[in-house]
């Protein structure tokens, strides 16, 4: 027969259980979730005109003028912006604009139109100094899977280092398990979050152009590359092919079936009156721009605000494939070869991603076929042009070993 508990027995039971309750509560309270740290190089400094300061944990000052600024006008611009009062509804023009990728606010896509970085870049000389160089600009959200291949590419000869500069825009919201090293060491610019179906990829490309313009007055051609890109020729061959024409290579297509949907992706009439439908163009995300056109891009205050708007239809939102072709087609079509020099295979693809080449497909024959193909020249035949593809995508990360086996004997042998 069970006995009914009396007050004294209940009190004793509570006292016996109290230590266990305290231990359980303490352990539960202090349980935290750990995250993989983001490891990036300190963003590369920009000499002379401005310097970049990076603090991954909080909003920090973006730009500060150096003491040896040669351009008096630039000095006045930056000084004036520093002195402008900060109102309750306005951010300082010299503060960071980094926004967490998870933020639903449209400010994720908003870029300060009067940002001092672009003000400085738009004032550089449009003519490069000698020796002319190629600026290789990598836009990535992950460690570069083909870094060893590019390392060999850039180090083919002792004199090749005078032919190029490297710049990396690395999305800071993604984990990088090791810093960029080798030729990529200290080449990461101050980067912001990027994602598809938004203007952020275009903004990142513009940011790369601004840094490259300010970093070296010798940068003559600016090439945009993805982490899945590989070279198809030696650096020496690529260098002369890019500089020989004196024109930008950007795919410009006027009669694409998707043109209207992409033009209206931000909502009806958003592009008007600056960009009419008949002026809207489609093209590849990857291009090679002359210094004059790079300066045009960073100086643009007319078309960019139209493209720098969140889309209402994400299935047709590809501003990175529309902004550059449209801008250059409207401003200087004669200064462009309307083609991309990055080989890609869209056969049978309907998901917005080109075919990915797997490791088992990589061999001399694949490289030969890509070299023999010729670009599509706008909506025509190129009037007999036969420019070679200089790069190719898209390759699976595990294709690195196969690519390295044929690098010296095939890829770098012209």
UniProtKB/TrEMBL annotation:
Keyword Secreted appears in the UniProt entry: no
Membrane topology classification: Single-pass type II membrane protein
Pfam families in UniProt: Branch
Keywords, comma-separated and alphabetical: Glycoprotein, Glycosyltransferase, Membrane, Signal, Transferase
GO molecular function terms attached to this record: glycosyltransferase activity
Locations listed in the record: Membrane
InterPro entries per UniProt: BC10-like, Glyco_trans_14
Gene Ontology cellular component annotations, sorted alphabetically: membrane
Keyword Signal: yes
Superkingdom of origin organism: Eukaryota
Coiled coil regions, renumbered to chain: none
Signal peptide: 1-25
Protein name: Glycosyltransferase
Source species: Glycine soja (Wild soybean)
Lineage: Eukaryota, Viridiplantae, Streptophyta, Embryophyta, Tracheophyta
């Amino acid at each position: 027969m069970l006995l009914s508990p009396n007050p004294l027995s209940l009190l004793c039971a509570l006292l016996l259980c109290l230590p266990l309750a305290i231990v359980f509560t303490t352990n539960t309270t202090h349980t935290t979730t750990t995250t993989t740290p983001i490891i990036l190089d300190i963003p590369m400094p920009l000499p002379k005109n401005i310097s970049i300061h990076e603090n991954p944990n909080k909003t920090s000052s973006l730009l500060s003028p150096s003491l040896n600024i040669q351009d008096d006008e630039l000095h006045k611009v930056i000084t004036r912006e520093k002195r402008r009062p900060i109102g309750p509804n306005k951010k300082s023009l010299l503060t960071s604009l980094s926004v967490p990728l998870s933020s639903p606010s449209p400010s994720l896509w908003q870029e300060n139109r009067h940002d001092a970085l672009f003000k400085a870049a738009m004032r550089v000389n449009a003519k490069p100094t000698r020796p002319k160089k190629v600026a290789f600009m990598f836009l990535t959200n992950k460690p570069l899977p083909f870094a060893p291949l590019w390392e060999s590419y850039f180090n083919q000869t002792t004199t090749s280092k005078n032919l190029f500069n490297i710049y990396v825009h690395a999305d800071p919201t993604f984990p990088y398990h090791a810093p960029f090293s080798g030729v990529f060491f200290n080449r990461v610019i101050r980067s912001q979050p990027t994602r598809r179906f938004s203007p952020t990829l275009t903004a990142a490309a513009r940011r790369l152009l601004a840094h490259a313009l300010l970093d070296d007055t010798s940068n003559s051609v600016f090439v945009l590359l993805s982490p899945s890109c590989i070279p198809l020729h030696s650096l020496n061959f690529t260098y002369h092919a890019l500089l020989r024409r004196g024109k930008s290579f950007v795919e410009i297509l006027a009669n694409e079936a998707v043109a209207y949907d992409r033009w209206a992706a931000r909502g009806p009439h958003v592009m008007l009156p600056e960009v009419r439908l008949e002026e809207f163009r489609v093209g590849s995300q990857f291009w090679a721009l002359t210094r004059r056109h790079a300066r045009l891009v960073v100086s643009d205050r007319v078309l960019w605000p139209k493209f720098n708007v969140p889309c209402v239809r994400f299935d047709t939102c590809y501003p990175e494939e529309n902004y550059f072709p449209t801008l250059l087609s409207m401003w200087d079509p004669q200064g462009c070869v309307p083609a991309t020099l990055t080989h890609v295979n869209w056969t049978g693809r309907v998901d917005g991603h080109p075919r990915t080449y797997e490791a088992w497909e990589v061999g001399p024959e694949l490289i030969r076929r890509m070299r023999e193909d010729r670009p599509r020249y706008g909506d025509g035949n190129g009037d007999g042009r036969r420019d070679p593809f200089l790069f190719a995508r898209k390759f699976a990360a595990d294709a690195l070993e196969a690519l390295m086996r044929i690098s010296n004997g095939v890829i770098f042998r012209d």
